[in-house]
Specification:
The complex is a heterodimer of chains A (208) and B (197). With 208 residues, chain A is mainly β. Chain A has 1 helix and 14 strands. In chain A, strands 3, 4, 6, 8, 11, 13 and 14 form a 7-stranded antiparallel β-sheet that branches. In chain A, strands 5, 7, 9, 10 and 12 form a 5-stranded antiparallel β-sheet that branches. A two-stranded antiparallel ribbon of chain A has the order 1-2. In chain B, the strands form 3 sheets. In chain B, strands 3, 5, 7, 10, 12 and 13 form a 6-stranded antiparallel β-sheet that branches. In chain B, strands 4, 6, 8, 9 and 11 form a 5-stranded antiparallel β-sheet that branches. In chain B, strands 1-2 form a two-stranded antiparallel ribbon. By secondary structure, chain B is mainly beta. In chain B, a hairpin with a 6-residue loop joins strand 8 (119-129) and strand 9. The interface between A and B is large, with 61 and 53 residues.
Chain lengths: 208, 197
């Protein structure tokens, strides 16, 4: 029996004879079965968007005028390994500064960092929240924001940013904080609202 | 062919029918269409329209006015809306009115002595077309980070907008006495969120 296939899910159906054999029905049923398994897989992926959230809960010392890479000590969410889109975790405690792309993907990234000024920030100050690709310390592979406090302000000063990145499998993003101002430092990161970084996969080039 | 399944309405022959290839053909194509429709939202997620454009050269310094970010490198684009040398992302004409999230990091490079408090403002400008009148209207979103005298500002901004046959771009507004410009490495990006209706 010659079988033809439907255009999309490629389901086999009988064609060249005017009678239908049990084997034809069996092969069509098997193809439908596979297509439904594929649909279930897609639904499973969809319900577990590959994403990760990490924080730096303990204070981390930041030297004045030095772009410092934040070492994350608190993993809030990492469903990379549970998402068939990714199939691997983003965070590895052995490399606690990095969120590594498990697969080629486009991610939306949010990052925030606060620095606790123990004395007045001074007339020329800033807190810079930097998201860096593969260890970069300057353009072009950095995105972020910079915030300058009023000169008399003390206490925690925050900067936060949103960015989007195209990552190849194995590329990693890091959060780096920079501050300058009147205090000699070093200053600590804020612990009430600790530095954090979150990624969520928003597109998969392999599907496009 | 005498029956339809309860949930999806797939056609099938009853036990008393003589099953022929036309029955199998109709059933197979009905199942095929059904599966295609059910998988659509999942596939749409994987291929969500989005783009990332990067400025690859420091722009010419200026004192006051507006400078738009040129796209020197397309890091990612599955919309066909941006290209090398353009200043705008253009929404695909075939796309229905839809919500988009746009964002940018505008790095500001100073070329002279900085003066504290001078105005640095980032902008994202959105153009959208009225479906009935075809009139184009503009909306601009701002983020202001005045000069901190710490060797340039990093202006990070984002906005959500509804567009139809629209365009979007990012830029820098200055007003002051120090020459500055958009720095290489600045990025403008966007991602589709969903239909307006």
């Amino acid at each position: 029996m010659t079988m033809r296939k439907t255009p999309y899910a490629r389901l086999r159906y009988p064609w060249a004879s005017d009678t239908v054999s049990a084997a034809d029905v069996e092969s069509m049923g098997a193809d439908i079965d596979q297509a439904l398994v594929q649909t279930a897989g897609l639904a499973s992926n969809f319900s577990r968007t590959a994403s990760v959230v990490v924080q730096r809960a303990a204070a981390q010392s930041l030297t004045k005028g030095v772009l410092t890479t934040i070492s994350f000590d608190s993993l809030k969410l990492d469903n990379g390994a549970n998402s068939p889109f990714a199939n691997a975790a983003w965070y590895n405690a052995a490399s606690p500064t990095r969120l590594t792309a498990p697969t080629s993907c486009v991610v939306l990234c949010h990052a925030m960092g606060g620095v606790n000024f123990t004395a007045a920030a001074g007339s020329s100050n800033c807190v810079q929240c930097t998201v860096a690709l593969n260890g970069a310390t300057g353009q072009p592979n950095v995105q972020g924001s910079k915030y300058a406090a009023l000169s008399t302000q003390t206490g925690s000063q925050f900067a936060n940013c949103m960015s989007m990145w195209k990552l190849s499998a194995g590329d990693y993003l890091e959060l780096k904080l920079y501050w300058t101002g009147s205090p000699a430092g070093p200053l600590n990161t804020d612990t009430s609202f600790p530095p954090s970084m979150a990624l969520s996969m928003v597109a998969v080039p392999a599907v496009a | 062919m005498s029956g339809l399944t309860t949930n999806e309405g797939l056609p099938y022959p009853s036990e008393t029918d003589f099953a022929d290839v036309q029955d199998a053909f109709r059933l197979a194509t009905a199942i095929d269409s059904d599966i295609r429709a059910q998988q659509k939202p999942f596939r749409d997620f994987g291929m969500r329209p989005s783009f990332i454009g990067r400025c690859t050269a420091n722009q010419s310094g200026f004192l006051s006015g507006t400078q738009y970010m040129p796209i020197g490198a397309v890091e990612w684009d599955n919309t066909g809306g941006i290209g090398f040398g353009t200043y705008y992302w253009t929404q695909p004409n075939s796309q229905a009115p839809s919500w988009w999230l746009f964002g940018a990091t505008i790095l500001v490079v100073p070329t002279g002595s900085q003066v504290g408090g001078e105005m640095n403002m980032g902008l994202i400008q959105i153009a959208t077309t009225d479906q009935v009148t075809q009139q184009i209207s503009y909306t601009t979103y701002y983020q202001r980070n005045d000069d901190s005298t710490t060797n340039g500002e990093w202006i990070n901004m984002f906005c959500m907008a509804a567009l139809y046959q629209g365009q979007a771009n990012a830029g820098l507004i200055l007003q002051g006495t120090t020459t500055k410009a958009i720095q290489a490495g600045s990025r403008f990006w966007g991602m589709y969120l969903g239909p307006v209706t």
